[in-house]
Every structure is written in C-alpha cells, then in structure tokens.
Design brief:
Length: 122
C-alpha cells in the first residue's frame, strides 16, 4: 500500500506529464476542479483556472516530449499535515525553469493539487 507521500509524488508526476506531454486530460487528473494556477511569467502576472491551464498546455504542439526536450522534475520538499500537503518542485517547461509551490487536499482518499503558485527562476 502506498503512503500519502508516495501518492502525492504520483500526482506530481501526472502534473509534470500534463505539461511535458501537452495533455489537458492529465491536467484535469492532477488538479482539483476549483484549483487556481497563479504566478509570474516574463510578460507579467498570470492567473488561470484548471480548464484554462489545460487548454494552454494542450496548445503547446508539438509537445516538449515529442520535441525531445529533456524532462526535468525535482521534488525539493514535501510536507504532509493530515488531509493537506505542500510540495515545492522545480521543473523545466518551454525553455524556462519554474519553482512551483503546490498545495494539496485529500478528498475521498484521493490527493489533488488545490493551488499552484509559480515563479520563473531564469
């Protein structure tokens, strides 16, 4: 049986794969339907719903995976507190390196990302 941390790590992998594979379906699988994706890109502040984020990643064609981009995902920290958790992850996407803070909620035994706050490192 998987621990909560292992289950959350699996969700983080689905989240990364949604971007790497340009998959809207995987975005919806990783995020709670009411989640927000917020942060700063080089062109300014961004604030998206899960549907908007899913549409954005799906529009990146060909996908980073198809182009042969190197997959970079690093879980920096992961803390579980009851039915909630917070993870800091570093990932490469579309030529940028992001530091993401992902908050999680456990509902009916399933961990989902409730919010993503992102920062571009370079």
């Amino acid at each position: 049986m998987l621990t909560d941390k292992q289950k959350i790590e699996s969700v983080i992998q689905v989240y990364f794969n949604c971007m790497y594979e340009s998959s809207s379906e995987k975005a919806h699988a990783a995020f709670h339907p009411d989640a927000w994706i917020s942060g700063y890109l080089p062109n300014g502040y961004q604030h998206m719903t899960v549907s908007e984020f899913g549409d954005f990643v799906a529009a990146q064609q060909p996908s980073p995976k198809s182009k042969g981009d190197v997959a970079r995902l690093e879980i920096i920290s992961l803390e579980v507190a009851g039915q909630t958790a917070v993870a800091r992850v570093r990932d490469a996407y579309l030529g940028l390196v992001f530091l993401d803070t992902l908050s999680f909620i456990k509902l009916e035994g399933q961990w989902l990302i409730l919010n993503k706050l992102f920062h571009v490192e370079d």
